[in-house]
Specification:
alpha+beta, 6-stranded antiparallel beta sheet, about 20% strand, globular
């Protein structure tokens, strides 16, 4: 099968996406597929792009480790001969159109927000994961949390604030009980997430969060254990618990090996396990998601839990959560990638 693994892009999660893409690409090569790893933003500059599936090359060879810092997009843009106009790099759409399936390994926006999915729908290109609508709704934390509340899915109390409102002097500080959490509305990998304990920290966090995007979420801080639940074809996988050795599950703790202790299946009662898995499946349905996703939860000491968000293109690196959950039911990484392709084909036969 001809498979394009599409990674990279322009988001703050670019490095994570490339690492995800490299692992998925290698899995498909190991399984005997004709796979190509393609950077969505840098594309493929050569004129022999029509023969790309015939080129003998290790497409993941140049992919490095995930940096402790988010990528410098100015340096990356300078690599584009066309000056970096537009999201898709040279020949990306042409190459994707030649594939039997495009495995989306993008993280953040564009890519995880439905825009790439919509472009592919218009071009008749098959891709893995949720469609444009589910991806867009899940990416917008303000909108997804509204749907959570309307459908009885527990989620932390809070509100969204626009940069324009903040610049006009509106900060809604009186609505914030400290400690609180300030985070970007459409970010991922915990980039742009700040724990605040005072008015000064709150205002500073707003300034930082608005440097990433124009809408932020402010919500109550939930003290508790952190869990994640993968959902594959509508059915929940075993729950994984994440216990950072220090701080919270931020960008560094997610992608630097040894920064967190991860336990799967999580040490929970059978009743609580089933309840959290059911909630994850409910989120999957409410947000109109397809194929696979991962939901993040916090559990308080009293047994109550809260869903924070849904990830429609969860990470697939060595330290990623979804592959660990799949492994707990006997599904190795190569099999998981094959399963995602198999389920994705079903979208186009519904």
């Amino acid at each position: 099968m001809k498979i394009v693994v599409l990674a990279g892009g322009t988001s703050t999660e670019r490095d994570v996406s490339l690492a995800t893409g490299a692992m998925i690409y290698q899995a498909f090569k190991n399984s005997g597929h004709n796979a190509v790893l393609l950077d969505a933003y840098l594309g493929y500059e050569e004129n022999d792009f029509k023969e790309i599936f015939s080129i003998e090359k290790d497409w993941a060879e140049a992919i490095g480790a995930i940096s402790r810092e988010t990528p410098d997009m100015e340096k990356i843009r300078a690599q584009r001969k066309d000056g970096g106009v537009g999201f898709f790099g040279p020949h990306v759409m042409d190459i994707c159109a030649m594939a039997d399936m495009v495995f989306l390994a993008l993280h953040g926006a564009p890519g995880e927000d439905g825009t790439v999915q919509a472009a592919f729908d218009l071009a008749g290109i098959r891709y893995t994961g949720s469609g444009y609508l589910g991806a867009a709704v899940a990416m917008d934390k303000s909108l997804s949390k509204e749907l959570f509340r309307q459908n009885g899915i527990p989620t932390p109390e809070g509100f969204s604030l626009w940069k324009e409102q903040f610049e006009k002097g509106e900060d809604r500080m009186e609505e914030v009980p400290f400690p609180a959490v300030v985070k970007t509305c459409r970010g991922g990998s915990s980039v742009g997430v700040y724990m605040v304990n005072s008015k000064e920290e709150y205002l500073e966090a707003l300034h930082k969060a608005f440097s990433y995007e124009n809408q932020v979420i402010v919500e109550q801080y939930i003290k508790g254990r952190e869990f994640s639940v993968g959902v594959l074809e509508g059915k929940a996988l075993p729950i994984i618990e994440i216990a950072p050795l220090e701080g919270f599950y931020d960008y560094k703790n997610k992608y630097q090996a040894g920064s967190a202790v991860e336990t799967c299946p999580a040490d929970l009662s059978e009743e609580l396990t089933k309840s959290m898995q059911k909630a994850a499946e409910h989120v999957f349905s409410v947000l109109r998601l397809k194929v696979y996703a991962r939901m993040d939860f916090l559990l308080q000491e009293d047994g109550s839990f809260f869903c924070l968000e849904a990830n429609t293109l969860p990470g697939m690196t060595k330290t990623s959560l979804l592959p660990q959950e799949a492994a707990a039911v006997g599904m190795d990484f190569e099999t998981l990638c094959e399963k995602i392709i198999e389920i994705s084909f079903k979208k186009y036969n519904e």
